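// run 5 | inverse folding | seed 20
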């Protein structure tokens, strides 16, 4: 029994030792994982830093190349400008006697003065050119507008001319119609005068063929009441014509009766002998 208890104690001790070892191993694993992560982060940051440094190095190399090219360009410019300096030195030496240009800076100042004056003149010329272009554009627009107005006015004038021509034709037509009406009026007046004269003539003849040598007097005025006067004359002529027609008919009947009575009486031998 004691042996079993001892074994149990040994087992518990070993199990406790194993748990401690497991805890220590887990702690070691965790610490190892953390170290691994820190190492990865450090490597990643170092890679990023290296890339940044390489990019900066490349940029610096590019800038160095540009600076070297710029230096070479300046050296070339300097070599090309040396002859101008020699020329300016010769100018100052030649003009030192009259004191016009004692130093190169005097020549450069004179150059910049003339250049600024030239720029001012060029700017003024550009402004005048712009003003001239604006004036030309304005004149062109004004000319175009006036041409359009002229076209519109010519069109209106042409329309007015056509209207005047139409009115002239209409006036001529109306004048012809007026002349025709006047001619018709004169013709009608002439015919009316002839008709009135005929009526008067018939009236006078009808009056003179009656019992009296003059026709009866009409109650209407010939000037103030001409139509009524003519109607009265025609009425008298009608009555007179009817009377004469009756007389002519009676005379014709009487002749017929006389002819009939003459034909019914026998003729004598002496008369027949005389007739033959």
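// decoded
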């Amino acid at each position: 029994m004691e042996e079993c208890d001892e074994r149990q104690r040994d087992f518990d001790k070993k199990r406790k030792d194993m748990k401690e070892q497991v805890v220590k191993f887990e702690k070691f694993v965790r610490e190892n994982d953390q170290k691994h992560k820190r190492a990865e982060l450090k490597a990643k940051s170092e890679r990023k830093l290296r890339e940044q440094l390489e990019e900066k190095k490349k940029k610096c190399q590019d800038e160095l190349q540009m600076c070297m090219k710029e230096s070479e360009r300046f050296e070339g410019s300097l070599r090309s400008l040396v002859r101008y300096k020699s020329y300016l030195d010769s100018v100052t030496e030649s003009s030192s006697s009259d004191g016009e240009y004692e130093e190169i800076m005097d020549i450069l100042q004179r150059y910049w003065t003339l250049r600024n004056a030239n720029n001012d003149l060029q700017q003024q010329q550009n402004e005048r050119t712009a003003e001239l272009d604006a004036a030309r554009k304005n004149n062109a627009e004004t000319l175009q507008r006036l041409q359009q107005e002229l076209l519109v006015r010519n069109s209106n004038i042409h329309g007015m001319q056509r209207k005047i021509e139409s009115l002239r034709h209409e006036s001529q037509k109306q004048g012809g119609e007026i002349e025709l009406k006047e001619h018709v009026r004169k013709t009608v007046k002439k015919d009316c005068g002839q008709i009135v004269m005929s009526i008067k003539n018939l009236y006078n003849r009808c009056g003179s063929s009656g019992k009296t040598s003059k026709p009866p007097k009409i109650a209407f005025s010939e000037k103030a009441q001409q139509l009524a006067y003519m109607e009265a004359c025609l009425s008298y002529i009608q009555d007179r014509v009817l009377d004469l027609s009756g007389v002519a008919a009676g005379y014709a009947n009487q002749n017929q009766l006389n002819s009939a009575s003459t034909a019914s009486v026998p003729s004598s031998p002496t008369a027949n002998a005389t007739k033959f």
